[in-house]
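#onboarding

Welcome to the new folks! Below is a worked example of what a typical request in this channel looks like: someone posts a single protein sequence, and someone else replies with the predicted structure as tokens. Don't worry about understanding the tokens yet, we'll cover that in week two.

Example request:
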Amino acid sequence: MDEGKLDSTGPPQEFLIYLPPCYEEKTDQHYPVLYLLHGQTYRDDQWIRLGAVDVIDNLILSGESIPFITVFPDDRYWNLPAGPGFGQRLVDILVPYIDESYRSIPDRNHRAIGGMSRGAGWALRLGLTRWDLFATIGLHSLAVLQRDASRIPNWLMDIPASSRPRVFMDIGDNDPELTMAKLVEAQFNEHGVSHEWHLYSGAHTEEYWGAHVEEYIRWYAEGWNNTTFDP
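Example response:
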């Protein structure tokens, strides 16, 4: 696991990055990239603490998944005035840096974004408004960002039918964000966006996310396992 820090006009954009086991050996191979965003008040290691890297390692080493890079951006400044700049830092600074510095496959079909709670709110906003960058969106215990709910229908209408994202949504039945998540899911249905919807037992907690992290990672990986994988 490597650490990185990128300068910006606001706070520096820090991140952790996972490179697959074969990365250093197969120097002619290029990889899909998964961006996983943490929840509010947490840090870039949240997904790692909940077991994401262990799952990724197991899938790749067992041959159940093609190898892929995973980036864990840090959004610790969510409660500062510069906090809203996280999304811009991610798409304008971090994504280009990853594509320039690592052997990624730099197109939307090989780039996914997902998050938990507030991280899912960012994944929703960035995945829909920057559909040119991300073809896959994971929304785990979605907490919609302030003022975004009314914008979602327009965002969906602006996406060409041929570029509609692959979407996964899940939430616990005792989650305070459940009503809003159901409204977002209804908008996906209304606009013909194909998606998975899962309502499980649980609350808005790390215990819930940790219980489902393997399911999440497997779903992201499945999106690439059936696609052409060229260096």
